[in-house]
Every structure is written in C-alpha cells, then in structure tokens.
Amino acid sequence: MFKHFLFCFFLILISGVQASNKDKILENLQNTENLNFDFEQNINGKVEIGNCTIQYPKKIFCEYQKNNKILVSNGKSLVIKTISSFYRYPLNQTPLNLILDKNFLIQKIENLKEHTLGKTFINFEIIEKESEINIFFDNENFDLVGWQTKDIYQNINVTYISSIKKNQKVNKDLFELPSQN
Known about the structure:
With 181 residues, this protein is an alpha+beta fold.
C-alpha cells in the first residue's frame, strides 16, 4: 500500500514539474513585448509576402514586397495604403484587433483546449463575435507562427510568419498612420 501511495505521489510530483505546452505558450506570450517577422499571407488564394513589426498592444506595421503596400495600426485605426488606394478602418472592426491584443490571447488560450497538428504546430481556435481565429504556435519553441481568420464576409486569411525576432528596439514613429496623399 505504501509503495502504491509513493508511486502515485511521484507521478503527481513529476506531472506538476513539467509545464504543459499551453503553459509554455502563455509564458512566451507574456514575455513578448514586440515581434518582427517575415510573412506570407494568403487571402482567398491571393498570396503576398513582406515583413511586419508588432508592438503589443495592438500596433503593427507591415511592408509588402509588391505595390508599395503598407498596413499600419496605431492601436485604434488600421490603414492599408498602396500607390493607388487608401483604406482606413476602426481596428476593433477587424480580426487583427484580437490578434494584436496579447492579453486577450492569453485570457482565451488559458481557457481553450490545444490541438496538436502533427509534431510541428499547436493550434487554438478562438470564436469571438463574428470572427473565427485559428492561432498557431511552434511545438518546439512555442513562438507564434501564424494565424487564420475568417471575417464576417467569410473571407479566409492565412498568415504564416518566419524569421521571428522578439523584443527588439522599435521606433515608436513606425506606428504613425500615413496620410492619404
């Protein structure tokens, strides 16, 4: 009986010492102030590539390789600008509002079941208001590696990120919204 008790105690002790994947992801997110990364984005079959910087909370600057396109959020508004077009949206009307809010992500992930995809990715599915977000993390280093969103118009946006650099010095002026000119 004592051996059985000791064995159970040992198993409980070992399971408590090893942090779960979810705990490692949450700790990694908590310790991340900003990210810089390359991306490949596929929106309904149209693929674009570029580089982004995220500054938590809710700021992003992305330069696309073609069309002189940029995407910028100052935390309140989102601007997408090319040579020939200029669009401004309230950030809270876009799925990026949730993706760029690490406290929201942490709160949601704490209460969600993780899904392991092969040996490579860990996925969490977030349904919020009229948006569906799948967020993906690397199964080895627990870094954010991408997301998939479906907006109210049923557009699917898949973003893969790579060459990730965390907690770099970031120029705050990067997140100033461009003018329409």
